[in-house]
Amino acid sequence: MERIPILRMGNCLIVAIQVDMHDRLAIALQDDLTERIVKDKAKGVLIDISALDVVDSFIGRMISNTAAMATVLDAETVVVGMQPSVAITLVELGLTLSGVSTALNVEKGMALLQQRRR
Amino acid sequence: MMHVGDVTETLAAEVGLRSDEEIVRLRQIVRDHAIAQGFSLVDQTKFVTAASELARNTLQYGGGGDARLSKLTNGVRVGLRLRFVDRGPGIADIERALRDGFTSGGGLGLGLGGARRLCDEFEIQSEPGKGTVVSITKWKLR
Protein backbone atom coordinates (compact mmCIF):
# COMPACT_ATOMS: atom_id res chain seq x y z
CA MET A 1 0.00 0.00 0.00
CA GLU A 2 1.16 3.55 -0.66
CA ARG A 3 2.38 5.54 2.33
CA ILE A 4 2.94 9.21 3.14
CA PRO A 5 6.66 9.72 3.86
CA ILE A 6 7.74 10.95 7.29
CA LEU A 7 11.03 12.88 7.55
CA ARG A 8 13.06 13.44 10.69
CA MET A 9 14.93 16.67 11.42
CA GLY A 10 16.63 16.74 14.84
CA ASN A 11 13.96 15.65 17.29
CA CYS A 12 11.08 16.66 15.01
CA LEU A 13 9.10 14.63 12.52
CA ILE A 14 7.91 16.37 9.38
CA VAL A 15 5.09 15.29 7.11
CA ALA A 16 3.98 17.10 3.97
CA ILE A 17 0.70 15.68 2.71
CA GLN A 18 0.85 16.13 -1.06
CA VAL A 19 -1.92 13.83 -2.24
CA ASP A 20 -5.69 13.73 -1.88
CA MET A 21 -5.77 11.03 0.80
CA HIS A 22 -8.34 8.29 0.90
CA ASP A 23 -9.47 7.15 4.34
CA ARG A 24 -7.18 4.13 4.70
CA LEU A 25 -4.18 6.23 3.77
CA ALA A 26 -5.10 8.79 6.45
CA ILE A 27 -5.36 6.04 9.08
CA ALA A 28 -2.02 4.56 7.95
CA LEU A 29 -0.38 7.97 8.37
CA GLN A 30 -1.80 8.31 11.88
CA ASP A 31 -0.44 4.87 12.82
CA ASP A 32 2.96 5.50 11.20
CA LEU A 33 3.34 8.85 12.96
CA THR A 34 2.61 7.49 16.43
CA GLU A 35 5.04 4.63 15.84
CA ARG A 36 7.76 6.99 14.64
CA ILE A 37 7.29 9.35 17.62
CA VAL A 38 8.23 6.49 19.91
CA LYS A 39 10.93 4.96 17.71
CA ASP A 40 12.69 8.26 16.96
CA LYS A 41 11.98 9.73 20.44
CA ALA A 42 10.53 12.74 18.65
CA LYS A 43 9.43 15.78 20.64
CA GLY A 44 7.67 17.61 17.82
CA VAL A 45 5.50 16.73 14.84
CA LEU A 46 4.90 19.15 11.99
CA ILE A 47 2.16 18.38 9.48
CA ASP A 48 2.07 20.52 6.34
CA ILE A 49 -1.38 20.50 4.73
CA SER A 50 -0.80 23.40 2.31
CA ALA A 51 -1.32 21.08 -0.66
CA LEU A 52 -4.71 19.85 0.58
CA ASP A 53 -7.65 21.62 -1.04
CA VAL A 54 -10.16 19.59 0.96
CA VAL A 55 -10.15 18.59 4.63
CA ASP A 56 -13.34 16.78 5.51
CA SER A 57 -14.42 15.47 8.92
CA PHE A 58 -12.49 12.23 8.47
CA ILE A 59 -9.16 13.88 7.72
CA GLY A 60 -9.93 16.49 10.38
CA ARG A 61 -10.45 13.75 12.91
CA MET A 62 -7.22 12.07 11.85
CA ILE A 63 -5.35 15.33 12.49
CA SER A 64 -6.99 15.81 15.92
CA ASN A 65 -6.35 12.20 16.91
CA THR A 66 -2.72 12.37 15.83
CA ALA A 67 -2.21 15.51 17.91
CA ALA A 68 -3.88 13.89 20.92
CA MET A 69 -1.80 10.71 20.60
CA ALA A 70 1.38 12.79 20.21
CA THR A 71 0.55 14.66 23.43
CA VAL A 72 0.17 11.39 25.30
CA LEU A 73 3.58 10.36 23.91
CA ASP A 74 5.14 13.63 25.11
CA ALA A 75 5.39 15.26 21.68
CA GLU A 76 3.82 18.43 20.31
CA THR A 77 1.99 18.72 17.01
CA VAL A 78 1.70 21.76 14.78
CA VAL A 79 -0.42 21.81 11.64
CA VAL A 80 0.78 24.35 9.09
CA GLY A 81 -0.30 25.84 5.78
CA MET A 82 -4.07 25.42 5.91
CA GLN A 83 -5.66 27.11 2.89
CA PRO A 84 -8.16 29.88 3.82
CA SER A 85 -10.99 28.18 1.90
CA VAL A 86 -10.33 24.98 3.84
CA ALA A 87 -10.40 26.88 7.15
CA ILE A 88 -13.74 28.51 6.28
CA THR A 89 -15.23 25.16 5.26
CA LEU A 90 -13.97 23.32 8.36
CA VAL A 91 -15.54 25.82 10.72
CA GLU A 92 -18.85 25.73 8.86
CA LEU A 93 -18.73 21.95 8.89
CA GLY A 94 -18.49 22.16 12.68
CA LEU A 95 -14.91 21.03 13.08
CA THR A 96 -12.69 23.41 15.03
CA LEU A 97 -9.61 21.16 15.53
CA SER A 98 -9.56 22.13 19.21
CA GLY A 99 -6.33 21.13 20.87
CA VAL A 100 -4.34 21.32 17.65
CA SER A 101 -1.67 24.04 17.34
CA THR A 102 -1.48 25.73 13.96
CA ALA A 103 0.93 28.02 12.16
CA LEU A 104 0.76 29.77 8.82
CA ASN A 105 3.75 28.03 7.24
CA VAL A 106 6.54 25.50 7.84
CA GLU A 107 9.01 28.12 9.05
CA LYS A 108 6.63 29.53 11.68
CA GLY A 109 5.59 26.01 12.65
CA MET A 110 9.17 24.90 13.28
CA ALA A 111 9.83 28.08 15.28
CA LEU A 112 6.76 27.30 17.40
CA LEU A 113 7.93 23.75 18.11
CA GLN A 114 11.45 24.87 19.00
CA GLN A 115 10.29 27.67 21.26
CA ARG A 116 7.97 25.34 23.20
CA ARG A 117 10.73 22.82 23.76
CA ARG A 118 13.16 25.30 25.22
CA MET B 1 -32.29 16.78 -19.52
CA MET B 2 -35.04 17.42 -17.00
CA HIS B 3 -37.17 20.50 -16.33
CA VAL B 4 -38.61 21.06 -12.87
CA GLY B 5 -40.28 24.45 -12.55
CA ASP B 6 -37.87 26.75 -14.33
CA VAL B 7 -34.81 24.69 -13.45
CA THR B 8 -33.10 22.65 -16.16
CA GLU B 9 -31.04 19.74 -14.89
CA THR B 10 -28.43 18.01 -17.10
CA LEU B 11 -26.61 14.88 -15.94
CA ALA B 12 -22.85 15.55 -15.96
CA ALA B 13 -21.28 12.52 -14.28
CA GLU B 14 -22.10 9.31 -12.51
CA VAL B 15 -19.71 7.74 -10.00
CA GLY B 16 -20.01 4.39 -8.26
CA LEU B 17 -19.18 4.49 -4.55
CA ARG B 18 -17.82 1.14 -3.47
CA SER B 19 -14.36 1.97 -2.09
CA ASP B 20 -12.29 4.70 -0.40
CA GLU B 21 -10.59 5.44 -3.71
CA GLU B 22 -13.91 6.20 -5.38
CA ILE B 23 -14.63 8.88 -2.76
CA VAL B 24 -11.36 10.56 -3.82
CA ARG B 25 -12.37 10.22 -7.48
CA LEU B 26 -15.75 11.80 -6.78
CA ARG B 27 -14.07 14.73 -5.00
CA GLN B 28 -11.93 15.35 -8.09
CA ILE B 29 -14.87 15.15 -10.51
CA VAL B 30 -17.00 17.47 -8.35
CA ARG B 31 -14.08 19.92 -8.07
CA ASP B 32 -13.63 19.97 -11.88
CA HIS B 33 -17.32 20.69 -12.49
CA ALA B 34 -17.45 23.32 -9.74
CA ILE B 35 -14.54 25.11 -11.45
CA ALA B 36 -16.25 24.78 -14.84
CA GLN B 37 -19.46 26.31 -13.42
CA GLY B 38 -17.45 29.29 -12.18
CA PHE B 39 -17.84 28.67 -8.43
CA SER B 40 -15.60 30.72 -6.13
CA LEU B 41 -12.77 28.84 -4.43
CA VAL B 42 -14.62 28.82 -1.11
CA ASP B 43 -17.82 27.50 -2.73
CA GLN B 44 -15.86 24.84 -4.62
CA THR B 45 -14.30 23.71 -1.37
CA LYS B 46 -17.62 23.70 0.50
CA PHE B 47 -19.38 21.66 -2.18
CA VAL B 48 -16.51 19.18 -2.55
CA THR B 49 -16.32 18.76 1.24
CA ALA B 50 -20.08 18.15 1.48
CA ALA B 51 -19.76 15.62 -1.35
CA SER B 52 -16.98 13.84 0.52
CA GLU B 53 -19.02 13.61 3.74
CA LEU B 54 -22.08 12.21 1.96
CA ALA B 55 -20.04 9.81 -0.19
CA ARG B 56 -18.55 8.35 2.99
CA ASN B 57 -22.05 7.94 4.46
CA THR B 58 -23.17 6.13 1.30
CA LEU B 59 -20.20 3.79 1.56
CA GLN B 60 -20.21 3.28 5.34
CA TYR B 61 -23.90 3.18 6.20
CA GLY B 62 -25.52 2.47 2.84
CA GLY B 63 -23.16 -0.34 1.90
CA GLY B 64 -22.09 1.50 -1.25
CA GLY B 65 -24.14 3.16 -3.95
CA ASP B 66 -23.95 5.81 -6.64
CA ALA B 67 -23.46 9.55 -6.91
CA ARG B 68 -25.03 11.49 -9.78
CA LEU B 69 -23.82 14.98 -10.54
CA SER B 70 -26.02 17.37 -12.55
CA LYS B 71 -25.53 20.83 -13.91
CA LEU B 72 -28.39 23.22 -13.16
CA THR B 73 -29.61 26.42 -14.74
CA ASN B 74 -32.75 28.48 -14.27
CA GLY B 75 -31.93 30.95 -17.01
CA VAL B 76 -30.37 33.39 -14.56
CA ARG B 77 -28.22 31.30 -12.25
CA VAL B 78 -26.14 28.16 -12.68
CA GLY B 79 -25.46 25.51 -10.08
CA LEU B 80 -24.64 21.90 -9.33
CA ARG B 81 -26.72 19.14 -7.80
CA LEU B 82 -25.33 15.94 -6.42
CA ARG B 83 -27.55 13.00 -5.60
CA PHE B 84 -26.43 10.01 -3.53
CA VAL B 85 -28.40 6.80 -3.84
CA ASP B 86 -27.93 3.64 -1.82
CA ARG B 87 -29.97 0.54 -1.14
CA GLY B 88 -28.76 0.14 2.43
CA PRO B 89 -30.74 -0.21 5.65
CA GLY B 90 -32.10 3.36 5.49
CA ILE B 91 -32.35 5.88 8.33
CA ALA B 92 -35.10 5.33 10.90
CA ASP B 93 -34.98 8.79 12.50
CA ILE B 94 -33.82 11.43 10.02
CA GLU B 95 -34.18 14.37 12.44
CA ARG B 96 -31.87 12.61 14.86
CA ALA B 97 -29.36 11.67 12.14
CA LEU B 98 -29.15 15.32 11.09
CA ARG B 99 -28.20 16.47 14.58
CA ASP B 100 -24.51 17.23 15.10
CA GLY B 101 -22.77 14.62 17.17
CA PHE B 102 -25.22 11.83 16.41
CA THR B 103 -23.46 8.81 14.94
CA SER B 104 -24.17 5.14 14.65
CA GLY B 105 -20.81 4.38 13.09
CA GLY B 106 -18.16 5.73 15.44
CA GLY B 107 -17.52 8.88 13.42
CA LEU B 108 -17.85 12.47 14.59
CA GLY B 109 -21.49 12.73 13.56
CA LEU B 110 -20.86 15.81 11.44
CA GLY B 111 -21.57 14.23 8.05
CA LEU B 112 -25.24 14.93 7.35
CA GLY B 113 -25.67 18.12 9.39
CA GLY B 114 -22.32 19.46 8.20
CA ALA B 115 -23.09 18.72 4.54
CA ARG B 116 -26.43 20.52 4.91
CA ARG B 117 -24.72 23.63 6.27
CA LEU B 118 -22.22 23.71 3.38
CA CYS B 119 -24.90 23.74 0.63
CA ASP B 120 -27.84 25.89 -0.45
CA GLU B 121 -30.41 23.11 -0.71
CA PHE B 122 -30.53 19.76 1.03
CA GLU B 123 -33.02 16.94 0.67
CA ILE B 124 -33.12 13.52 2.21
CA GLN B 125 -35.48 10.63 1.66
CA SER B 126 -35.06 7.34 3.42
CA GLU B 127 -37.12 4.27 4.02
CA PRO B 128 -35.96 1.66 6.52
CA GLY B 129 -34.94 -1.48 4.68
CA LYS B 130 -35.00 0.17 1.26
CA GLY B 131 -32.24 2.74 1.17
CA THR B 132 -31.51 6.45 1.25
CA VAL B 133 -31.38 9.26 -1.30
CA VAL B 134 -29.61 12.47 -0.31
CA SER B 135 -29.49 15.44 -2.65
CA ILE B 136 -27.42 18.61 -2.25
CA THR B 137 -27.47 21.72 -4.42
CA LYS B 138 -25.22 24.72 -4.62
CA TRP B 139 -25.85 27.77 -6.77
CA LYS B 140 -23.15 30.03 -8.08
CA LEU B 141 -23.16 33.36 -6.28
CA ARG B 142 -23.69 36.22 -8.68
From TrEMBL, chain A:
Q: Which PROSITE patterns match?
A: STAS
- Where does the record place the STAS domain? 1-113
Organism of derivation: Azoarcus indigens
* One Pfam match: STAS
Its domain of life reads Bacteria
Name of the molecule in the record: RsbT antagonist protein RsbS
User: Which InterPro entries does this entry report, sorted A to Z?
Assistant: Bact_StressResp_Reg (IPR051932), STAS_dom (IPR002645), STAS_dom_sf (IPR036513)
CDD domains, sorted: STAS_RsbR_RsbS_like
Automatic annotation (TrEMBL), chain B:
TM ranges: none
Q: What's a single GO MF annotation on this record?
A: kinase activity
The alphabetical list of record keywords is: Kinase, Transferase
Q: Which InterPro entries match?
A: HATPase_C_sf, HATPase_dom
Q: Does the keyword Aminoacyl-tRNA synthetase belong to this entry?
A: no
Domain spans labelled Histidine kinase/HSP90-like ATPase: 42-142
Stated name of the protein: Serine/threonine-protein kinase RsbT
